[in-house]
Design a protein that fits this description.
With 176 residues, this protein is α/β, with parallel strands linked by helices. It has a single domain (7-167), classed as fumarase, CATH 3.20.130.10. The chain contains 5 helices and 7 strands, in the order βαβαβαβαβαββ. The chain has helices at residues 13-18, 36-47, 90-95, 109-118, 130-134, and strands spanning 7-8, 24-33, 60-62, 100-103, 121-124, 137-144, 153-167. It has a 5-stranded mixed beta barrel. β6 (137-144) and β7 (153-167) form a beta hairpin. The longest helix has 12 residues, at 36-47.
């Protein structure tokens, strides 16, 4: 595996085209925590042609549900959750403009095809290290579906968040 050699601050189509599977990098910017129930709500809004809480273009979804925030901290533990649980929703969200996803584990054939078709990217981050990953979060604010508690959508501002390109926009994959 290559060493961490790249810092990105946006996920533009040009940057996505340059990313290759197995590449390690750091991301500084905004990511959104989005889990199962929030995915379901977003897809329902798209299906009904209703306004989304934010534009999906250039956005990165982080499959994480932060724990309660300890006193003096920005956020609680916020490690990645299993990505396959979002596979039923991911192709539609990529079609609607979503650019990237962060999680853990392999993706379905349909998601891999959608990543390639819609020129997205799937990243991995360190599993089992939610407390460590929380240290890269500069700010956290719930922005949609607050009724879902820890599964609400949080807008996170992160600095040097560690990522590995798992599936690139050309179909290259760490999973073979």
């Amino acid at each position: 595996m290559a060493s961490i050699n790249k810092l990105i601050k946006t996920l533009s189509p040009e940057i996505i085209r340059q990313l290759k599977s197995w590449q390690q990098l750091r991301f500084s910017g905004v990511i959104y925590t989005v889990r199962d129930q929030a995915h379901r709500k977003l897809v329902e809004l798209i299906r009904k042609k209703k306004k989304l809480p934010f534009d999906l273009a250039g956005r990165i979804f982080y499959y994480s549900g932060p724990t309660a925030t300890p006193k003096g901290r920005v956020i609680g533990s916020c490690g990645p959750t299993t990505s396959r649980r979002m596979d039923a929703f991911a192709p539609g969200l990529l079609k609607a403009g979503l650019s990237g996803m962060i999680g853990k584990g392999n993706r379905s054939k349909e998601v891999k095809q959608a990543i390639k078709k819609y020129k997205g990217v799937y990243f991995l981050t360190y599993a089992g290290c939610g407390a460590l990953l929380s240290q890269y979060v500069l700010s956290a604010k719930p922005i949609a579906f607050r009724e879902l508690g820890p599964e609400a959508i949080y807008k996170l501002k992160v600095k040097d968040f560690p990522l590995i390109v798992a599936i690139d926009s050309k179909g290259g994959s760490v999973y073979g």
